Queue: 2 jobs
Job 1
Amino acid sequence: MGDAPRRALFPLGRSARLALTPYLFLLPSFVALAVVFFYPMLRAVVLSVYSNTVGGGLGQFVGLDQYGAVLSSAYFPRVLRTSVLWTAGNVVFVWGIGLATALMLDRRFPGRAIARALFILPWAIPYVAAALIWGWMFDYEFGVLNYLVRATGLSSQKINFLLACPDALISLTGVSIWKLFPLGTVMFLAGLQTIPAEYYDAAKVDGAGPLQSFWYITLPGLRNVSIMLTLLITIWTFGRAFTIIFLLTEGGPAGCTENIVIRSYLEAFKFFHIGTASAIGVIVLVISLVFSVAYLAFAHRKAEANG
Amino acid sequence: MVERRTVRRFAWKVAFYASLLVLLAAVVFPFYWMVKTSMDTGAGLFAYPPRFLPTSYALDGYTQVVKQTAVGQWLWNSLIVATGSTVLALVAGVSGAYGLSRFRYRGKGTLALVVLTTQMMPPLVLIIPIYTIFIGLGLNDTLLGVALGNFAFSLPVVMWMMKAIFDSIPIEIEEAARVDGASWPYILVHVTLPIALPGLVATGIFTFLNGWDEFMFARTIVSSADKWVGTVGLASFIGAYVTAWDQILAAATIFTFPPVVLFLLVQKHFIAGLGAGAVKG
């Protein structure tokens, strides 16, 4: 008799409760993801098929007109090109510098621990502080970089780091790479440590030089890390490049550093075109998704062909 | 023969150290320049050619910026936001990652991919609808709102990192406790998490630095100046008084100090923990 109320409270059998367990673990995080990612993204899709209004409410239903207007606009090819250049620059150099520094830190040498800490330091600095430091170093009149480029003979004239095209885009990409490459260092370092030392010993016995070892052992051993790093840097620098550009040039000079993210910011908070801004955001998501799926499919197919 | 090899080895060593030092100098120089400038006085600040060694160790920039701005308040707000979002993200993220790593159930692989897709949604477009939700909940212009936003923005990465760490812990360790009749939450807290502690610390630091670093969301959600976090406060220097670089960089140094110290204290664990996630993920 005493069991009856308990049974009413817990009507599920043991197996049913077991089946529910994983979902209970997932519940809090997925509720949070739904509130901050999925619902707002859905809302952005809805906003993008309505006309812009001043108040931020829904205007008239316009179907895909916002998309048509964005895609056929004069600025779209330009901001997309800037975003692609920015992303490609970041991926190539974060990958390259990350791998180079990881290979250095993987060797034993005195002071290795200090070198490792220093290489990863830029990762810990806040973006806003990084923007302020570099803004001062880029300064046309008093900036130290303009002194250095001339003292070292890299350039005979002062460089307009932030106020000329395409110099400004190159400068800002450089700052972004400086801030991001430690992620490559850390990931490649971890990857290098999973490659068994015996592989290198065996290659040495077979008469392989350092370059051959690198090409046939190190690079294939870093394959998974490399795929993950490339994917993350691509989607992050494509869809999230904001703070450095916003603070140092706000997309200028003459729209030269205006990428797709800055454009959607300007549409939303400067021109109050919420629908247009949302349409641009959805376009960013679609490009990222298509790229990720294609890239992962390509990477895995190649892995199968090789392995 | 032996001699040629020794020479080559020596040349190789010189090339290695030379490239190491050049790269290190390029990476560290901006930090040095920030601290050096923050201690300069007017003459040293705008000297040409620039003075590469500190011309003074004046703390005028620091005292001025502390007196004239609410930099202490900004730091305190950043601390609240970063700590709050870290605690929340670890609690929800660990539980979620455990659910993604253990058990067998329908849709498991899809859910892991769903977490990855959040990283492709541009935060900027999410902020407008979030802002509307926050107004409805009375969370706009509050530090709690900023902390909640940061918590959710960090959550996917926390789940991803912790899932990789849990994946690397063999399930057999848990099975003994399971046979003894322990519940899953008990096992997670008392058996698995202690093993995953280095990874958990790394993930926590990662989240804390994210919260300390976040700018766009805080700038949109918060309007009153007494609730500015450090990033918003620092950004307000841009265009405001452009020539007082010693003060601006003093503020930047103060704001950079906590994350850098935190990072240097735990960098060894951090690299190991993040690395584990990277290799598995």
Job 2
Amino acid sequence: MNRYPVWKYAIIVIALLVGAIYTLPNFFGEAPAVQVSAGKAAMRVDTGTQARIEEALKTAGLQADLVTFDGNSVKARFDSTDNQIKAKDAIQKALIPDPADPSYVVALNLVSRSPAWLSALHASPMYLGLDLRGGVHFMLQVDMQAALTKKAESLAGDIRSTLREKNLRHGGISRNGQTIELRFRDTATRDAAKRVFQDQFAELQTVDVPEGSEYKLTATIRPEAARKVQEQAVKQNITTLHNRINELGVAEPVIQQQGVDRIVVQLPGVQDTAKAKDILGRTATLEMRLVDESAEGREAESGRGPVPFGSERFTERDGRVVIVKKQVIITGDSLTDAQPGFDSQSQQPKVDLTVDAKGGRIMRDTSRENLKKRMAIVLFEKGRGEVLTAPVIQGELGNRFQISGAMTVMEANDLALLLRAGSLAAPMEIIEERTIGPSLGAENIAKGFNSVTWGFLVIVAFMATYYMLFGLFSGIALAVNLLLLVAVLSMLQATLTLPGMAAMALALGMAIDSNVLINERVREELRNGASPQAAIHAGYDRAWATILDSNITTLIAGVALLAFGSGPVRGFAVVHCIGILTSMFSAVFFSRGLVNLWYGRQKKLKTVSIGTVWRPEGSGAVAKSDANGV
Amino acid sequence: MEFFKIKKDIPFMRNALIFNVISFLTFVAAVFFLFSRGLHLSVEFTGGTVMEVSYSQPADLTKVRGVVSGLGFADVQVQNFGTARDVMIRLPVQKGVSSAQQSDKVLAALKADDGKVVLRRTEFVGPQVGDELATDGLKALGMVVAGIMVYLALRFEWKFAVAAIIANLHDVIIILGFFAYFQWEFSLAVLAAVLAVLGYSVNESVVIFDRIRENFRRYRKMNTVEIIDNAITSTISRTIITHGSTQIMVLSMLLFGGETLHYFAMALTIGILFGIYSSVFVAAAIAMWLGIKREDLVKPASKKEDGSGDPNDPNAGATV
């Protein structure tokens, strides 16, 4: 009766094998590495970059243990930190000719030392949280009201110029918070204005408010349009943060949206919070200026003459020199949007730009006077300008115009992104900040590890003395539980934190409950006089319902924590829940397998090793002994 | 080895009233301390800045306090953290000042005073986050309570659900009472521990209830009190061994986990100890007073399903 069919053993063996494979990478530790990733949105790291890095290492006489390309970055692993630093210098020299203008981020990093065949199976170690590896964590809140106010402001300007174009006389346009108020003297103009709104300002909804002799119209941003503005604002802020953090040279920055209006930034390994905060909060500026196309300007552009007075020399992303006039046409403040798209006639990729009304007016005048000339869009960061693009003005421009030409889709995307990234869409505020020193991280790992190890050993020792062989089986099942738990966490690439390690310890402490239940039940069956085989069977069978009930109640608590917890509590909850699930497998299914393997074959089993089965003298109410005794 | 050589069923229910009075008094004391002293909430809930710095020699707290309050921060807490060389500085949220910059300012001042000071950890939490965490914590607690009650009501009976929740919520209040009395820091990790304990000690009640249900089926002649006494007696060994094992783990965290896990482990320890007490003495007694009956649990349909029918069948449970 206590036998498993072959397929059950097969499941156990497969689970153990898979568990072992995915747990394995955690034991190899980490090796010093140099990581190269793109330093600009327009730059891509590819296998070509990998070849250049390998070449650079060869010329420097350095031997990397492994050079891998993972789609976003190239990582080169070394045997010592000495070589790692040398390699960083060599790669930096080879890839970045101009240190003032880095197109790649070359950062020191730690990568798993696990062999290539494990990486090929996508078996990688658990990701260590900041409290275990050290670093900085920021949570930023985007000021959505400010974003909406900014949008309303630019819309008010647009309305003003549109009404002027249509020759509709109004009695004043004002912005009150996020609502725009328009006054009219008669209903006819007001209705005409309403039609204009319907045609051109779909994102606004209008309400009539009769006020004395005047007709007032209030326009507010529609909720769905407002939502779009907010989404856009968060997205743009994330892009901007990405660009800025790239300068810090962080190997694996995490920049994620959390909730509707929050952004989490995690910078593992960064210790200089002051600098990080400074960089996150900096504003970049965008300027549109005319290219100096005078004879002197052209001379200077080709490098044959000095830069003429009143002009400046900038470079484009690909290194081409552009001589640009110092006079600024409009700044990035006027730019309200930049979106990639396709030209409806030529089917070529393009970038649509939208500037506010004031900017539109200036653009119109400037473009009329400078037809067929080039206009440069310059992005200033850290006080250093870079020409993003310098297209030729093809016609008279309004407040909406496009940049098109020889661009790939990706280039159009990148350009739109860079244009938008120039500044933050809305101000942000740091609402949470956490810094963990690297030594504290290492200490935390040791603390977590010691807690789990000692607790585990003492429990196994106790179980083995108290329940003998059954206790040993329980101990093995507990070890399997730990193995599976770590394997699942590694598979999910969950972030391990100190609370996570605490949850691991707690999960083991609670998991043993199932085995205690089973062992006690088996003893009780033996005490009541069941034959060993029947006792094992009944013990497992009857304990199962209880185990299920109790695990489900614990799981309910775990799920609630997962649903409402944030930060460290989430880390705890994830491990807690997974631990409960793996414990059901290991404590019941797996330990039964062990018991069946050991005792199942023996038809005439006389005794089982489960410690003392004590029977009360005489017949108490507890022991309902019956004839079927041993 | 066998620790529990119990000859007869222990008449737990005979003294149920006494146990419940003890537990009620503890509960009242806990509530009293919660209101009179309040919880010492961590910055995660209140908002503010915490810095952990470490010196090369044992730190002079008064000097550190002087340096920090010299910067114009009011209501600054400075205390040792773990060892004498580690110092924890807690600054409240300041209006107007960009709070994220506080830590830099403090560290600069401390560095000027003693160059060997090392920043180990800083944490800044804005007030809006704190409020949110508090409400989320309460929501989580509500969800745990509701979830467990619904599950127990479905699996057993509403009387058991009510009994289990009363018994275990009183554990939670008692844990909070301890934190209020000793003014231990109540952090997010402690909240997680409290909720984990709630789920865990409901386990305990579930095990006993399971046995009560089984006994109702098996021993037709016993009355409710005897059935409950028998159920508790026959599960007591498991209860104590299980909790002992979990406590071993928690103790290991208490010993090796350092300052960060200290209060987490503390909350678990109190929760585990009172968990045993409340499920053994309180939950079953409440269920008894709510008037559980054989008919509540032994429904004709479920009896057939279960298969462990006749109590006098020598081969009960020994299916092949």
